[in-house]
Write a structure and sequence with these properties.
The protein is of the alpha+beta class. The chain folds into 3 domains: 245 residues, 3-Layer(aba) Sandwich (Rossmann fold), CATH 3.40.50.300; 170 residues, no CATH class; 241 residues, no CATH class. Helices cover 44% and strands 20% of the residues. The chain contains 19 helices and 25 strands. Strand 7, helix 6 and strand 8 form a beta-alpha-beta unit. Helix 3 packs parallel to helix 5. The structure holds adenosine-5'-diphosphate (ADP) and magnesium ion (MG). The site of adenosine-5'-diphosphate has 11 residues, from strand 2 and helix 1.
Length: 701
């Protein structure tokens, strides 16, 4: 049986819808092992077309191409890949080495595509490269070799799988005459080793050393001559140039296709070859990830901060009730809250709560024992206190008086405040007040301790104590108290002067009068505190209050809900911006990968000629997009940590607090997103690469 038998081969190229070009006409040829055949003919006569058909790069033909008696037209796509991988070795005029791989990797690529293990690959390649005089060049890149050396590498690559047929399309076309002879000697030797070598050539001289010359013109064979003087120098000396083939002992179970690991390794080599470009892409994607991480961290930082504030103000065993709306529908707000108008209002609310508790099986009842009151109000305008100091600025009863005016927040000490809330000093009692840290500075002291024990004169008019009497009422907080302590009001209000007094002391201090008549109008609280028996009871009462129209939890709770609403609006807006930048990043990766496919069209053609399946090509390109995703994710995480860290330090220095809370899963989400978007972005380019026609790709400039 002939090694290669071609029967009635016809090839048409489809030009337009109706027009066809008849490139090869009725070719009938038979080739045997050990032949070195030259195909000669004018340019455009159909030589390459013929080679591509034999090589299984193009299976669109009429007639038969029988290799060992089997028509390759009948092969499935998979079998055809296997055919190219195992039976055929291609050598091209322009070498077609893969520039970013070493000589060793270029030679072993066909074995990599067959998932041959590393040690075996290296051993085979070393043997072949040594015989071709290239052992010293193994670690080099193709660009570091001369033309002749490159072509020898290409021959080594063609031989690595011990194919039966070597197809060389103008292998010496790009070489000078000396190197041409070298290459011809090698090809001759390969034929002598018992392989069928078919080469296309223009050169008479080249043709003259072959065993047979087939001449083609206009797609037809016009002559087929055997050289009688052709000497088989080393007749069928098996395994001269070819690495010793171990018996095909590969079990059927063993995967003989490109492994994921090798695909990633190949992708890594390619990415490394254009590392600046890839790093810039990763950097671009990383920026969008940084913005995502920081925006999420900012949202949770603010929420943490606000709920931390709320926690510091509240106690799970206390219900605090405030008015959210008055009879006229006016909304209470944290800076100007509403007070309770009458004792009857308070009594009926307490009774209502007790009824709810009873109906729902709670044993706890709100009674005089556990109900207390609170007051809070912002004051401004003529609010002032007087403080006497000596020359050193310390408190001195006989010293000079300094009057301070400004905005104050008057607050009664909640019943659950204890020593843990104190920066220094004690909870105030009768004839005592506490201040926030800001007052230390207002009084001109450096240390909070120095303020303790100082006496002050307070005169703070509080307007608009309740809605009904708002316009013409005045509440004067006047007295001569001692400062008992400094309260920790949390970072947010640290710079804001807050005066804390006990509710009882406040009641004894204030005069609440109608401005025009001077009539005492009585004093009602702004908040009601109920000390419960359990957190569950607190939650029950709070939920009940929140279901009511006019009442709600504490002012602090109102503040928290106002802020959290704001934060969620801001976070949503920020997340949308981050989302847009991620979409942009995805498109960027897509464009870059598309360009990469176009740039590497020839490489894809080479891989296909070596026997790479569509799947393998897809795998290599997908691995590349995966690597870009991974790299982007890692760069993004590092940048977010660095940038976020700097931001935290800066904000702490400027504001005294930094509302940025990293959560570990934000980083995981960012990494996940970058991997997902890069894989998605890689789908289309990888599919495009896989679909490329091998013949066209090889012709690509
Ligand atoms: P050679 O290798 O002998 O120079 P080719 O085999 O490359 O010639 O081409 C043979 C003929 O087929 C030429 O006329 C060429 O223009 C034509 N041809 C080759 N490839 C295509 C194609 N993809 N579509 C249409 N015509 C083609
Ligand atoms: Mg050609």
């Amino acid at each position: 049986m002939a090694e290669l038998e071609i029967k009635n081969l016809n090839k048409y190229y489809q030009l337009g819808n109706k027009t066809k070009f008849h490139a090869l006409t009725d070719i009938n040829l038979t080739f045997e092992k050990g032949e070195l055949v030259s195909i000669v003919g004018e340019s455009g006569s159909g030589k390459s077309t013929f080679m591509n058909l034999i090589g299984g790069l193009d299976s669109d033909f009429e007639g038969e191409i029988n290799v060992n008696g089997e028509n390759i037209k009948k092969l499935t796509d998979k079998e055809l890949d296997e055919y190219r991988k195992k039976k055929i070795g291609f050598v091209f005029q322009s070498f077609n080495l893969i520039p970013h791989l070493t000589i060793l990797d270029n030679v072993t690529i066909a074995l990599t595509l067959s998932n041959v293990k590393e040690s075996e690959k290296v051993q085979k390649a070393t043997e072949i490269l040594e015989r071709l005089g290239l052992k010293a060049q193994m670690k080099k890149k193709p660009s570091q070799l001369s033309g002749g050396q490159k072509q020898r590498v290409a021959i080594a690559r063609a031989l690595i799988n011990d194919p039966e047929i070597i197809l060389a399309d103008e292998p010496t076309g790009a070489l000078d005459s000396d190197t041409t002879l070298q290459i011809l000697d090698i090809l001759k030797e390969i034929a002598d080793d018992g392989k069928l070598v078919i080469m296309v050539t223009h050169s008479e001289k080249v043709a003259s050393i072959s065993s047979r010359v087939v001449e083609v013109a206009d797609g037809k064979i016009i002559s087929d001559k055997y050289k009688s003087d052709y000497k088989k120098t080393k007749k069928h000396k098996a395994n001269k140039l070819v690495a010793k083939q171990e018996e095909e002992q590969i079990s059927k179970k063993k995967k003989t296709n490109l492994s994921y690991f090798s695909a990633i390794k190949l992708a890594f080599h390619n990415m490394w070859a254009s590392k600046v470009k890839n790093f810039l892409i990763a950097f671009g994607v990383a920026i969008s990830l940084v913005s995502l991480i920081l925006m999420l961290s900012f949202g949770s930082g603010l929420t943490d901060y606000i709920s931390g504030l709320a926690d510091s103000y509240t106690n799970p065993l206390y219900v605090s009730i405030s008015k959210s709306k008055d009879e006229n529908g006016n909304q209470s707000n944290p800076l100007n809250p509403l007070g309770f108008d009458k004792q009857e209002e308070i009594d009926s609310l307490i009774a209502d709560i007790n009824k709810q508790l009873e109906e729902n099986g709670y044993e706890f009842r709100a009674t005089e024992e556990n109900v207390s009151y609170g007051f809070n109000k912002m004051t401004y305008g003529s609010a002032s206190f007087t403080f006497k100091t000596n020359e050193e600025g310390k408190y001195d009863e006989n010293g000079e008086s300094i009057a301070n005016k400004g905005v104050f927040y008057v607050y009664t000490t909640p019943p659950y405040y204890d020593e843990t809330k104190m920066i220094v000093g004690n909870i105030s009692g009768q004839n005592e007040v506490m201040f926030s840290k800001a007052v230390t500075k207002i009084l001109g002291y450096e240390n909070d301790e120095d303020v303790i024990g100082a006496k002050i004169q307070i005169n703070i008019p509080i307007f608009g104590i309740n809605t009904e009497l708002a316009v013409d009422s005045e509440l004067n907080l006047t007295g001569n108290p001692t400062i008992s302590g400094i309260v920790d009001v949390s970072n947010m209000f640290e710079n804001f002067p807050v005066i804390y007094v006990s509710y009882n002391y406040l009641q004894s201090l204030i005069r609440f009068t109608e401005t025009t008549t001077g009539k005492n109008l009585g004093f009602y609280p702004y908040s009601i505190y109920i000390r419960t028996d359990a957190e569950e009871t607190t939650n029950f009462i709070t939920n009940y209050l929140n279901s009511l129209d006019n009442y709600s939890g504490s002012v602090e709770q109102q503040m928290v809900s106002m802020f959290t609403e704001m934060i969620s609006t801001i976070s949503t807006a920020l997340a949308i911006i981050a989302g847009i930048s991620i979409v942009v990043a995805t498109i960027m990766i897509l464009v870059v990968l598309y360009m990469s496919v176009t740039e590497r069209t020839r490489e894809i053609g080479v891989l296909k000629s070596i026997g790479a399946r569509r799947k393998d090509i897809k795998r290599i390109f997908s691995s590349e997009s995966l690597l870009i995703g991974l790299l982007s994710g890692i760069v993004g995480i590092v940048l977010a940590l660095v940038f976020g860290g700097v931001l935290i330090i800066a904000l702490k220095a400027i504001l005294g607090f930094a509302p940025i809370s990293f959560r570990w899963w934000y980083f995981l989400v960012a990494l996940g997103i970058s991997i997902v978007i890069s894989i998605l972005a890689g789908l289309m380019p990888a599919a495009k690469a896989a679909k490329l026609d091998p013949v066209e790709s090889l012709r690509h400039e």
